Amino acid sequence: MRVSRLNATQDPTVQAVVNVRGSMSEEPVHILGAGLSGLAAATYLAKAGREVHVYEIRSDSGARFDGDFQGIENWTSSESDFFDEMRDWGLDPEEFKSNDFDIIDLIHPDDEITNPITEGVAFRVVERGTDSHCIDQGFKRMATAAGATIHYDTRRRPEDCHIVAAGPKESSAVAFGEIFHTDHPNHVSFQLNDKLAPGAYSYLIIIDGIGLICTCLWRKQKRTSRYLNETIAWYEQHYELNRRPIKRVGGKGDFSLPDKYVHDGRYYVGEAGGLQDFMWGFGMRYAITSGVFAAKAILGESDYEVEVRKRLVPLVRASAINRFLMNRVGDRGFKLVANHWMRNQRKKGDGLVFMRWLYAPGPLRLMLWPIVKAGMLRRKQLKDGRMVSRMPFRDSLSRDSWEPSPQAEEIAAQWESIRKGGGSVSFGESDA
Ligand SMILES: Cc1cc2nc3c(=O)[nH]c(=O)nc-3n(C[C@H](O)[C@H](O)[C@H](O)COP(=O)(O)OP(=O)(O)OC[C@H]3O[C@@H](n4cnc5c(N)ncnc54)[C@H](O)[C@@H]3O)c2cc1C
To answer: How far apart are alpha carbons 299 and 314 in whole angstroms?
Structure first.
Protein backbone atom coordinates (compact mmCIF):
# COMPACT_ATOMS: atom_id res chain seq x y z
CA MET A 1 0.00 0.00 0.00
CA ARG A 2 1.35 3.41 -0.79
CA VAL A 3 2.34 5.90 1.87
CA SER A 4 0.01 8.88 1.82
CA ARG A 5 1.37 12.41 1.85
CA LEU A 6 0.63 13.77 5.31
CA ASN A 7 1.01 17.32 6.50
CA ALA A 8 4.13 17.90 8.54
CA THR A 9 3.18 17.33 12.17
CA GLN A 10 4.75 16.51 15.48
CA ASP A 11 1.87 14.23 16.44
CA PRO A 12 3.45 10.80 17.08
CA THR A 13 0.22 8.99 16.18
CA VAL A 14 0.34 10.56 12.74
CA GLN A 15 3.82 9.18 12.36
CA ALA A 16 2.39 5.81 13.35
CA VAL A 17 -0.10 6.07 10.49
CA VAL A 18 2.76 6.57 8.09
CA ASN A 19 4.49 3.55 9.52
CA VAL A 20 1.46 1.33 9.21
CA ARG A 21 0.75 2.38 5.66
CA GLY A 22 4.34 1.97 4.73
CA SER A 23 5.12 -1.31 6.36
CA MET A 24 1.87 -2.86 7.68
CA SER A 25 3.72 -2.86 11.03
CA GLU A 26 2.16 -3.48 14.42
CA GLU A 27 1.64 0.26 15.02
CA PRO A 28 -1.75 1.44 16.41
CA VAL A 29 -4.70 1.56 14.02
CA HIS A 30 -6.76 4.80 13.98
CA ILE A 31 -10.43 4.76 13.03
CA LEU A 32 -12.64 7.79 12.42
CA GLY A 33 -16.20 7.24 13.67
CA ALA A 34 -17.60 4.97 16.40
CA GLY A 35 -20.71 3.85 14.49
CA LEU A 36 -21.38 0.28 13.39
CA SER A 37 -18.73 0.16 10.65
CA GLY A 38 -15.97 1.71 12.77
CA LEU A 39 -16.73 -0.44 15.81
CA ALA A 40 -16.96 -3.65 13.76
CA ALA A 41 -13.50 -2.90 12.37
CA ALA A 42 -12.18 -1.96 15.83
CA THR A 43 -13.45 -5.20 17.40
CA TYR A 44 -11.96 -7.41 14.71
CA LEU A 45 -8.59 -5.65 14.87
CA ALA A 46 -8.41 -5.50 18.67
CA LYS A 47 -9.31 -9.19 18.90
CA ALA A 48 -6.36 -9.87 16.60
CA GLY A 49 -4.15 -8.11 19.14
CA ARG A 50 -3.76 -4.73 17.46
CA GLU A 51 -3.80 -1.47 19.40
CA VAL A 52 -6.87 0.39 18.14
CA HIS A 53 -8.05 3.98 18.67
CA VAL A 54 -11.50 5.09 17.54
CA TYR A 55 -12.32 8.82 17.35
CA GLU A 56 -15.94 9.87 17.62
CA ILE A 57 -17.15 13.43 17.27
CA ARG A 58 -20.29 12.80 19.32
CA SER A 59 -20.41 12.01 23.04
CA ASP A 60 -21.40 8.36 22.57
CA SER A 61 -21.97 5.63 20.00
CA GLY A 62 -25.53 5.73 18.69
CA ALA A 63 -25.96 9.42 19.53
CA ARG A 64 -26.57 10.08 15.82
CA PHE A 65 -29.82 8.19 16.32
CA ASP A 66 -32.39 8.55 19.05
CA GLY A 67 -34.14 5.30 19.89
CA ASP A 68 -35.44 4.58 16.39
CA PHE A 69 -35.95 1.02 15.21
CA GLN A 70 -34.08 -0.23 12.14
CA GLY A 71 -34.15 -3.56 10.31
CA ILE A 72 -31.07 -5.69 9.59
CA GLU A 73 -31.95 -7.49 6.40
CA ASN A 74 -31.34 -11.16 5.76
CA TRP A 75 -31.95 -11.26 2.03
CA THR A 76 -28.82 -9.99 0.27
CA SER A 77 -27.16 -13.36 0.80
CA SER A 78 -29.06 -16.59 0.30
CA GLU A 79 -26.20 -18.65 1.68
CA SER A 80 -26.02 -17.52 5.26
CA ASP A 81 -27.90 -15.87 8.06
CA PHE A 82 -26.27 -12.51 8.78
CA PHE A 83 -26.05 -13.20 12.53
CA ASP A 84 -24.11 -16.41 11.76
CA GLU A 85 -21.78 -14.38 9.55
CA MET A 86 -21.27 -11.96 12.46
CA ARG A 87 -20.47 -14.86 14.80
CA ASP A 88 -17.89 -16.14 12.28
CA TRP A 89 -16.22 -12.71 12.49
CA GLY A 90 -16.19 -12.81 16.30
CA LEU A 91 -19.08 -10.34 16.67
CA ASP A 92 -21.74 -11.40 19.17
CA PRO A 93 -25.35 -10.60 18.18
CA GLU A 94 -26.43 -11.39 21.75
CA GLU A 95 -24.71 -8.16 22.86
CA PHE A 96 -27.77 -6.15 21.79
CA LYS A 97 -31.51 -6.65 21.68
CA SER A 98 -33.04 -7.83 18.41
CA ASN A 99 -36.41 -9.20 17.35
CA ASP A 100 -36.73 -11.66 14.45
CA PHE A 101 -39.48 -11.24 11.86
CA ASP A 102 -40.66 -13.73 9.25
CA ILE A 103 -43.76 -11.83 8.14
CA ILE A 104 -44.79 -8.25 7.35
CA ASP A 105 -47.89 -6.39 6.34
CA LEU A 106 -47.16 -5.21 2.80
CA ILE A 107 -49.38 -2.20 2.16
CA HIS A 108 -50.07 -1.60 -1.51
CA PRO A 109 -50.63 1.97 -2.80
CA ASP A 110 -54.38 1.27 -3.03
CA ASP A 111 -54.38 0.29 0.70
CA GLU A 112 -54.70 -3.46 0.08
CA ILE A 113 -52.67 -5.31 2.73
CA THR A 114 -50.98 -8.64 1.94
CA ASN A 115 -48.42 -10.71 3.84
CA PRO A 116 -45.02 -11.71 2.46
CA ILE A 117 -43.80 -14.54 4.71
CA THR A 118 -40.76 -16.80 4.93
CA GLU A 119 -39.77 -19.84 6.96
CA GLY A 120 -36.55 -18.41 8.36
CA VAL A 121 -35.65 -14.92 9.53
CA ALA A 122 -36.48 -12.25 6.93
CA PHE A 123 -34.97 -9.45 9.01
CA ARG A 124 -34.34 -8.39 12.57
CA VAL A 125 -35.40 -5.18 14.22
CA VAL A 126 -32.82 -3.47 16.42
CA GLU A 127 -32.89 -0.16 18.24
CA ARG A 128 -30.41 2.60 17.44
CA GLY A 129 -29.24 4.96 20.15
CA THR A 130 -27.41 5.21 23.45
CA ASP A 131 -29.53 2.93 25.68
CA SER A 132 -27.69 -0.17 26.74
CA HIS A 133 -29.83 -2.60 24.67
CA CYS A 134 -29.23 -0.64 21.42
CA ILE A 135 -27.06 -2.17 18.70
CA ASP A 136 -24.66 0.79 18.85
CA GLN A 137 -23.99 0.16 22.54
CA GLY A 138 -23.61 -3.58 21.90
CA PHE A 139 -20.91 -2.83 19.33
CA LYS A 140 -19.28 -0.36 21.71
CA ARG A 141 -19.12 -3.07 24.42
CA MET A 142 -17.63 -5.57 21.95
CA ALA A 143 -14.96 -3.10 20.83
CA THR A 144 -13.94 -2.05 24.34
CA ALA A 145 -14.01 -5.66 25.64
CA ALA A 146 -11.66 -6.58 22.78
CA GLY A 147 -9.28 -3.83 23.95
CA ALA A 148 -10.01 -0.90 21.57
CA THR A 149 -9.89 2.62 23.02
CA ILE A 150 -12.74 4.91 21.98
CA HIS A 151 -12.15 8.66 22.23
CA TYR A 152 -15.55 10.36 22.39
CA ASP A 153 -16.13 14.09 21.80
CA THR A 154 -12.97 13.99 19.72
CA ARG A 155 -12.40 15.54 16.34
CA ARG A 156 -9.66 14.10 14.14
CA ARG A 157 -8.68 14.56 10.54
CA PRO A 158 -9.52 11.71 8.17
CA GLU A 159 -5.97 12.04 6.81
CA ASP A 160 -4.71 10.86 10.20
CA CYS A 161 -6.77 7.68 10.23
CA HIS A 162 -6.46 4.32 8.53
CA ILE A 163 -10.20 3.68 8.39
CA VAL A 164 -12.78 6.37 7.67
CA ALA A 165 -16.11 5.26 9.16
CA ALA A 166 -17.72 8.66 9.64
CA GLY A 167 -21.14 7.91 8.14
CA PRO A 168 -23.10 9.95 5.57
CA LYS A 169 -22.00 13.44 4.56
CA GLU A 170 -24.64 14.61 2.10
CA SER A 171 -28.34 13.92 1.65
CA SER A 172 -29.68 11.80 -1.18
CA ALA A 173 -32.82 11.01 0.80
CA VAL A 174 -34.24 11.61 4.27
CA ALA A 175 -36.50 9.80 6.71
CA PHE A 176 -38.71 11.29 9.42
CA GLY A 177 -40.43 9.33 12.14
CA GLU A 178 -42.40 9.54 15.35
CA ILE A 179 -41.84 7.27 18.33
CA PHE A 180 -44.83 6.57 20.55
CA HIS A 181 -46.26 4.35 23.26
CA THR A 182 -48.81 1.86 21.97
CA ASP A 183 -50.87 -1.13 23.14
CA HIS A 184 -50.49 -2.89 19.77
CA PRO A 185 -48.51 -6.19 19.76
CA ASN A 186 -45.14 -6.45 18.00
CA HIS A 187 -45.58 -5.80 14.32
CA VAL A 188 -43.96 -4.51 11.09
CA SER A 189 -45.77 -2.89 8.15
CA PHE A 190 -44.11 -1.71 4.96
CA GLN A 191 -46.07 0.64 2.74
CA LEU A 192 -45.38 1.54 -0.87
CA ASN A 193 -47.13 4.88 -1.34
CA ASP A 194 -45.86 7.69 -3.53
CA LYS A 195 -48.04 10.34 -1.87
CA LEU A 196 -47.12 9.66 1.78
CA ALA A 197 -43.50 8.78 1.00
CA PRO A 198 -42.52 10.46 -2.28
CA GLY A 199 -40.58 7.97 -4.41
CA ALA A 200 -40.16 5.61 -1.49
CA TYR A 201 -42.04 3.91 1.33
CA SER A 202 -43.26 4.32 4.88
CA TYR A 203 -43.16 1.83 7.72
CA LEU A 204 -44.62 0.99 11.10
CA ILE A 205 -42.54 -0.97 13.60
CA ILE A 206 -43.83 -1.94 17.03
CA ILE A 207 -41.63 -3.66 19.59
CA ASP A 208 -42.70 -4.26 23.19
CA GLY A 209 -45.12 -1.36 23.52
CA ILE A 210 -43.04 1.20 21.60
CA GLY A 211 -43.97 2.12 18.04
CA LEU A 212 -42.23 3.98 15.22
CA ILE A 213 -44.01 5.37 12.19
CA CYS A 214 -41.54 6.62 9.62
CA THR A 215 -41.82 8.07 6.15
CA CYS A 216 -38.92 8.14 3.69
CA LEU A 217 -38.62 10.95 1.18
CA TRP A 218 -36.62 10.15 -1.93
CA ARG A 219 -37.69 13.52 -3.39
CA LYS A 220 -36.77 16.79 -1.68
CA GLN A 221 -39.74 18.57 -0.11
CA LYS A 222 -40.57 21.76 1.71
CA ARG A 223 -42.45 21.40 5.04
CA THR A 224 -41.51 17.75 5.31
CA SER A 225 -43.40 17.18 8.58
CA ARG A 226 -46.69 17.20 6.67
CA TYR A 227 -45.68 13.89 5.06
CA LEU A 228 -45.10 12.39 8.48
CA ASN A 229 -48.38 13.75 9.86
CA GLU A 230 -50.32 12.36 6.89
CA THR A 231 -48.54 9.00 7.20
CA ILE A 232 -49.37 8.78 10.91
CA ALA A 233 -52.98 9.64 10.07
CA TRP A 234 -53.04 6.77 7.57
CA TYR A 235 -51.72 4.22 10.09
CA GLU A 236 -54.10 5.46 12.79
CA GLN A 237 -57.03 4.81 10.48
CA HIS A 238 -55.89 1.27 9.66
CA TYR A 239 -54.44 -0.05 12.94
CA GLU A 240 -55.60 0.05 16.59
CA LEU A 241 -52.59 1.90 17.90
CA ASN A 242 -53.73 3.96 20.88
CA ARG A 243 -50.72 6.13 20.01
CA ARG A 244 -49.13 8.33 22.71
CA PRO A 245 -46.30 10.29 21.02
CA ILE A 246 -42.89 10.48 22.72
CA LYS A 247 -40.50 12.12 20.25
CA ARG A 248 -39.70 12.68 16.61
CA VAL A 249 -36.57 11.33 14.95
CA GLY A 250 -35.00 10.95 11.53
CA GLY A 251 -31.87 11.14 9.49
CA LYS A 252 -30.33 11.28 6.05
CA GLY A 253 -28.85 8.74 3.66
CA ASP A 254 -25.93 9.32 1.31
CA PHE A 255 -26.03 7.16 -1.82
CA SER A 256 -22.90 7.14 -3.92
CA LEU A 257 -20.51 4.82 -5.67
CA PRO A 258 -16.89 5.92 -5.30
CA ASP A 259 -14.32 5.13 -7.96
CA LYS A 260 -12.14 3.59 -5.24
CA TYR A 261 -12.79 2.29 -1.73
CA VAL A 262 -9.16 2.70 -0.68
CA HIS A 263 -8.04 6.27 -1.23
CA ASP A 264 -4.65 7.67 -0.26
CA GLY A 265 -4.10 4.53 1.81
CA ARG A 266 -7.31 5.03 3.81
CA TYR A 267 -10.13 2.49 3.88
CA TYR A 268 -13.60 4.01 3.43
CA VAL A 269 -16.21 1.85 5.12
CA GLY A 270 -19.97 1.97 5.67
CA GLU A 271 -21.80 5.04 4.47
CA ALA A 272 -18.57 7.08 4.41
CA GLY A 273 -17.66 4.73 1.55
CA GLY A 274 -21.09 5.12 -0.05
CA LEU A 275 -21.96 1.55 0.93
CA GLN A 276 -25.70 1.97 1.19
CA ASP A 277 -28.73 0.35 -0.33
CA PHE A 278 -30.07 2.76 -2.97
CA MET A 279 -33.41 1.03 -3.07
CA TRP A 280 -34.57 0.88 0.56
CA GLY A 281 -31.70 2.42 2.60
CA PHE A 282 -30.71 -0.74 4.47
CA GLY A 283 -27.12 0.25 5.27
CA MET A 284 -26.35 -1.55 8.54
CA ARG A 285 -25.32 -4.86 7.03
CA TYR A 286 -23.01 -3.11 4.55
CA ALA A 287 -21.56 -1.03 7.40
CA ILE A 288 -20.71 -4.02 9.61
CA THR A 289 -19.47 -6.14 6.70
CA SER A 290 -17.27 -3.43 5.22
CA GLY A 291 -15.82 -2.62 8.66
CA VAL A 292 -14.77 -6.26 9.05
CA PHE A 293 -13.39 -6.34 5.47
CA ALA A 294 -11.22 -3.27 6.19
CA ALA A 295 -9.94 -4.83 9.41
CA LYS A 296 -9.07 -8.05 7.56
CA ALA A 297 -7.19 -6.04 4.95
CA ILE A 298 -5.13 -4.23 7.60
CA LEU A 299 -4.26 -7.61 9.10
CA GLY A 300 -3.15 -8.75 5.66
CA GLU A 301 -5.93 -11.37 5.43
CA SER A 302 -7.51 -9.97 2.27
CA ASP A 303 -7.60 -7.05 -0.16
CA TYR A 304 -10.32 -4.52 0.78
CA GLU A 305 -10.84 -3.12 -2.71
CA VAL A 306 -11.19 -6.64 -4.13
CA GLU A 307 -13.52 -7.90 -1.38
CA VAL A 308 -15.79 -4.86 -1.52
CA ARG A 309 -16.02 -5.05 -5.30
CA LYS A 310 -16.71 -8.78 -5.22
CA ARG A 311 -19.15 -8.97 -2.30
CA LEU A 312 -20.79 -5.56 -1.83
CA VAL A 313 -20.59 -3.45 -4.99
CA PRO A 314 -22.75 -5.85 -7.08
CA LEU A 315 -25.49 -5.54 -4.44
CA VAL A 316 -25.22 -1.75 -4.27
CA ARG A 317 -25.25 -1.60 -8.06
CA ALA A 318 -28.33 -3.84 -8.25
CA SER A 319 -30.04 -1.61 -5.69
CA ALA A 320 -29.16 1.46 -7.77
CA ILE A 321 -30.66 -0.12 -10.91
CA ASN A 322 -33.82 -0.94 -8.95
CA ARG A 323 -33.92 2.60 -7.58
CA PHE A 324 -33.60 4.00 -11.11
CA LEU A 325 -36.59 1.91 -12.19
CA MET A 326 -38.58 2.90 -9.10
CA ASN A 327 -37.85 6.58 -9.75
CA ARG A 328 -39.62 6.20 -13.08
CA VAL A 329 -42.87 4.95 -11.63
CA GLY A 330 -45.51 6.22 -9.21
CA ASP A 331 -48.22 4.35 -7.39
CA ARG A 332 -49.21 2.35 -10.46
CA GLY A 333 -45.68 0.96 -10.70
CA PHE A 334 -45.58 0.32 -6.94
CA LYS A 335 -48.81 -1.68 -7.26
CA LEU A 336 -47.23 -3.81 -10.00
CA VAL A 337 -44.21 -4.43 -7.72
CA ALA A 338 -46.46 -5.44 -4.79
CA ASN A 339 -48.55 -7.75 -6.99
CA HIS A 340 -45.46 -9.31 -8.54
CA TRP A 341 -44.02 -9.92 -5.04
CA MET A 342 -47.16 -11.78 -3.94
CA ARG A 343 -47.40 -13.76 -7.20
CA ASN A 344 -43.77 -14.77 -6.74
CA GLN A 345 -44.52 -15.89 -3.17
CA ARG A 346 -47.45 -18.02 -4.31
CA LYS A 347 -45.25 -19.64 -6.97
CA LYS A 348 -42.13 -20.19 -4.86
CA GLY A 349 -43.78 -20.64 -1.48
CA ASP A 350 -41.44 -18.10 0.14
CA GLY A 351 -41.76 -14.31 0.32
CA LEU A 352 -38.00 -13.81 0.61
CA VAL A 353 -37.27 -15.21 -2.85
CA PHE A 354 -38.53 -12.00 -4.45
CA MET A 355 -36.32 -9.82 -2.23
CA ARG A 356 -33.28 -11.96 -3.08
CA TRP A 357 -34.12 -11.76 -6.77
CA LEU A 358 -34.11 -7.96 -6.55
CA TYR A 359 -30.43 -8.04 -5.57
CA ALA A 360 -29.40 -10.66 -8.11
CA PRO A 361 -30.46 -9.03 -11.34
CA GLY A 362 -30.33 -10.92 -14.57
CA PRO A 363 -28.45 -9.75 -17.68
CA LEU A 364 -31.37 -7.62 -18.85
CA ARG A 365 -31.32 -5.38 -15.78
CA LEU A 366 -27.51 -5.32 -15.69
CA MET A 367 -27.56 -3.98 -19.23
CA LEU A 368 -29.31 -0.93 -17.78
CA TRP A 369 -26.26 -0.02 -15.69
CA PRO A 370 -24.72 2.49 -18.17
CA ILE A 371 -28.13 4.18 -18.51
CA VAL A 372 -28.52 4.29 -14.71
CA LYS A 373 -25.07 5.81 -14.31
CA ALA A 374 -25.70 8.46 -16.91
CA GLY A 375 -29.31 9.16 -15.99
CA MET A 376 -29.39 8.98 -12.19
CA LEU A 377 -25.88 9.52 -10.85
CA ARG A 378 -23.77 12.67 -10.93
CA ARG A 379 -19.98 12.75 -10.91
CA LYS A 380 -18.56 14.69 -8.00
CA GLN A 381 -15.15 15.24 -6.47
CA LEU A 382 -15.33 15.17 -2.69
CA LYS A 383 -13.23 17.41 -0.43
CA ASP A 384 -10.79 14.57 0.24
CA GLY A 385 -10.18 14.19 -3.50
CA ARG A 386 -12.27 11.05 -4.00
CA MET A 387 -14.35 10.87 -7.17
CA VAL A 388 -17.84 9.48 -6.67
CA SER A 389 -20.94 8.91 -8.75
CA ARG A 390 -23.63 10.02 -6.34
CA MET A 391 -27.38 10.12 -6.40
CA PRO A 392 -28.48 13.70 -5.82
CA PHE A 393 -31.60 14.44 -3.80
CA ARG A 394 -34.25 14.54 -6.54
CA ASP A 395 -36.52 17.55 -6.98
CA SER A 396 -40.13 17.36 -5.95
CA LEU A 397 -42.86 16.73 -8.51
CA SER A 398 -46.12 18.62 -8.94
CA ARG A 399 -48.01 15.63 -7.50
CA ASP A 400 -46.14 16.12 -4.19
CA SER A 401 -48.29 19.19 -3.39
CA TRP A 402 -51.58 18.36 -1.74
CA GLU A 403 -53.75 19.67 1.08
CA PRO A 404 -53.36 17.87 4.41
CA SER A 405 -56.34 15.88 5.67
CA PRO A 406 -58.18 17.08 8.82
CA GLN A 407 -56.77 14.03 10.67
CA ALA A 408 -53.21 15.01 9.69
CA GLU A 409 -53.87 18.61 10.86
CA GLU A 410 -54.97 17.22 14.23
CA ILE A 411 -51.82 15.09 14.46
CA ALA A 412 -49.71 18.16 13.64
CA ALA A 413 -51.44 20.13 16.43
CA GLN A 414 -51.05 17.22 18.84
CA TRP A 415 -47.33 17.03 18.11
CA GLU A 416 -46.93 20.80 18.46
CA SER A 417 -48.33 20.69 21.99
CA ILE A 418 -46.11 17.71 22.88
CA ARG A 419 -43.09 19.49 21.46
CA LYS A 420 -43.86 22.61 23.50
CA GLY A 421 -44.14 20.36 26.57
CA GLY A 422 -40.61 19.05 25.99
CA GLY A 423 -41.01 16.39 23.24
CA SER A 424 -37.66 16.22 21.48
CA VAL A 425 -36.86 16.33 17.76
CA SER A 426 -33.49 14.81 16.91
CA PHE A 427 -33.69 15.51 13.14
CA GLY A 428 -35.78 18.37 11.82
CA GLU A 429 -36.70 19.89 8.48
CA SER A 430 -33.58 22.08 8.57
CA ASP A 431 -31.29 19.01 8.90
CA ALA A 432 -32.46 17.48 5.64
C1 LIG B 1 -33.79 7.32 9.70
C2 LIG B 1 -32.91 6.22 9.22
C3 LIG B 1 -33.42 4.93 9.15
C4 LIG B 1 -32.61 3.89 8.71
N5 LIG B 1 -33.12 2.63 8.68
C6 LIG B 1 -32.32 1.60 8.36
C7 LIG B 1 -32.81 0.26 8.42
O8 LIG B 1 -33.96 -0.01 8.75
N9 LIG B 1 -31.93 -0.74 8.11
C10 LIG B 1 -30.63 -0.50 7.76
O11 LIG B 1 -29.89 -1.45 7.52
N12 LIG B 1 -30.16 0.76 7.68
C13 LIG B 1 -30.95 1.80 7.98
N14 LIG B 1 -30.47 3.08 7.93
C15 LIG B 1 -29.08 3.28 7.47
C16 LIG B 1 -28.08 2.94 8.58
O17 LIG B 1 -28.44 3.59 9.77
C18 LIG B 1 -26.69 3.40 8.15
O19 LIG B 1 -26.44 2.97 6.84
C20 LIG B 1 -25.60 2.85 9.07
O21 LIG B 1 -25.80 3.26 10.39
C22 LIG B 1 -24.26 3.36 8.57
O23 LIG B 1 -23.26 2.98 9.49
P24 LIG B 1 -21.89 3.75 9.48
O25 LIG B 1 -21.02 3.08 10.48
O26 LIG B 1 -21.40 3.89 8.10
O27 LIG B 1 -22.27 5.20 9.95
P28 LIG B 1 -22.87 5.67 11.35
O29 LIG B 1 -23.59 4.58 12.03
O30 LIG B 1 -23.59 6.93 11.05
O31 LIG B 1 -21.59 6.03 12.19
C32 LIG B 1 -20.76 7.08 11.84
C33 LIG B 1 -20.22 7.69 13.11
O34 LIG B 1 -19.19 8.60 12.76
C35 LIG B 1 -19.32 9.76 13.55
N36 LIG B 1 -18.67 10.87 12.85
C37 LIG B 1 -19.13 11.59 11.80
N38 LIG B 1 -18.22 12.51 11.41
C39 LIG B 1 -17.17 12.35 12.26
C40 LIG B 1 -15.91 13.01 12.37
N41 LIG B 1 -15.56 13.99 11.55
N42 LIG B 1 -15.07 12.61 13.35
C43 LIG B 1 -15.41 11.61 14.20
N44 LIG B 1 -16.58 10.95 14.12
C45 LIG B 1 -17.44 11.31 13.17
C46 LIG B 1 -20.81 9.90 13.72
O47 LIG B 1 -21.11 10.68 14.87
C48 LIG B 1 -21.27 8.47 13.87
O49 LIG B 1 -21.29 8.03 15.21
C50 LIG B 1 -31.27 4.15 8.33
C51 LIG B 1 -30.76 5.44 8.39
C52 LIG B 1 -31.57 6.47 8.81
C53 LIG B 1 -31.01 7.85 8.87
So the answer is: 25
Cα separation, 432 vs 429, whole angstroms: 6
Q: How far is it, in rounded angstroms, from Cα 386 to Cα 374?
A: 19
> Does any ligand 1 atom lie closer than 6 A to the CB of residue 54?
no
Cβ count near 332 (within 10 Å): 10
Please tell me the distance between residue 179's alpha carbon and the centre of ligand 1 in angstroms: 19
pTM of the predicted model as reported, rounded to 2 decimal places: 0.92
3-state secondary structure of 387: strand
Asked if 419 contacts 178 with a C-beta cutoff of 8 angstroms, the reply is: no
CB 191 within 8 A of CB 176: no
Task: Choose among 395, 338, 404: nearest CA to 196.
Answer: 404
Largest CA distance in the chain: 66
Q: What is the pLDDT of residues 247-269, one digit of tens each?
A: 999 888 889 999 999 999 999 99
Over the stretch 291-330, which tens digit does the pLDDT of each residue have?
999 999 999 999 999 999 999 999 999 999 999 988 888 8
Rg of the chain (C-alpha set): 21
Q: Is 37 in the pocket of ligand 1 (CB under 6 A)?
A: yes
Measuring from atom 29 of ligand 1, which residue has the nearest CA?
A: 35
